[in-house]
Amino acid sequence: MTKTSYSSGDAIADRRAGYARMLAADGEIAAAAELMQQALELVPEWAAGWDVLGDYYDKLGDVAGAISAWRHLEALDDAGVFGARLKLAVHGAGPAGEGTAVSYVEALFDQYAPKFERALVGKLGYRVPEMLDELLAQEMALLGIVRFERGLDLGCGTGLMGERLRGKVDHLEGVDVSAAMIAETARKGIYDRLDKVELVAALHGRRADADLMTAADVFIYCGALQPVLAAVVPALQPGGMIAFSLEAHDGEEAVFLRPSLRYAHGVAATRDALVVAGLDILRFETVVLRLDRGAPINGILVIARKPPLEVTAANDGAGAGGDVAA
User: Fold this and answer.
1) Cβ atoms of residues 247 and 263 within 8 Å
2) Closest CA to 223 of 192, 255, 197
3) Residue 16 is part of a domain; what is its CATH number?
């Protein structure tokens, strides 16, 4: 069963779940939860139903009920499509785990793809690609860069970042974990190459051939930043640049999982991670990324650079034939 497949396979259970959705839409969450519980008594192995029930309980403030529902979900959803592990972690009922919850992110954006731009740009005031592009253009001017040879847009989505990059890059690649997102952006003809692949897997074993990488609102699904940067740096040419965004918090934690199931990164910890990865920080700005339920989401925009190769004289220092001080 995929995340978008709602049917339980039982007509009566589906009917009760349908009524529950209507009640929830009208704000009758307690009644909706009761009907979903009745539906699940008929089909106790219906993963999507347990996901919905957990969300209803969560909206009611019944944390114990939500955790119980998501425990059932976790046991039924081996692939992790519904993000039960993440939901349990947010409520202190388990660890978030390491790295990206790939199956959850893939299912989320496969479902979201057809309405992605309308919702994100039209309703939430999303401007991250525009803001990153502005910072990138400023750094290009300062460094005397006219164009990039090879660009790699990580988590390219529907091509919002790629549209900004196209005029700056000779050969532009996009990668995304969601096939539906890849299909949406393929229609636009922005990229020279598109691949459906998780970003760390896309970078693993790659030659150091990219002189530009971008990741607009991508690392917010990846957890700890250090492993991501450890994959990014070897794939950059010396002197190559990376531009990316993060959701931010001002606490001491390097990273924590928000109720939105996105990760927020600490400002100081992010700076440290960039230095440890061997990157030179060119721009580091805190901004409002977008709105979420009417509230601003604070974030970080980063432009960083892999140090260029240093050219040294062949006979520098005590080289062959040189004089050595006694």
Assistant:
1) yes
2) 255
3) 1.25.40.10
For the chain, what is the domain count? 2
Q: What is the chain's length?
A: 326
Last residue of a domain, one of 41, 64, 95: 95
Nearest CA-CA partner of 110 in 52, 176, 186, 18: 176
The DSSP element (H or E) to which 131 belongs, if any, is helix 128-143
pLDDT, one tens digit per residue, over 106-146 is 998 888 777 777 767 666 678 899 999 999 999 999 999 99
Q: Is residue 47 part of a domain?
A: yes
Q: Are residues 260 and 162 in the same domain?
A: yes
Is 320 part of any domain? no
Spatial CB neighbours of 311, under 8 Å, sequence gap ≥ 6: none
Q: Which residues contact 304 (CB under 8 A, 6 or more apart)?
A: 241, 242, 274, 279, 280, 281, 282
Domain coverage including residue 29: 11-95
Task: Report d(CA 276, CA 272) in Å as an integer.
Answer: 6
196 forms bridges with which residues in the sheet?
Answer: 176
In a domain, 103, yes or no: no
pTM of the model: 0.87
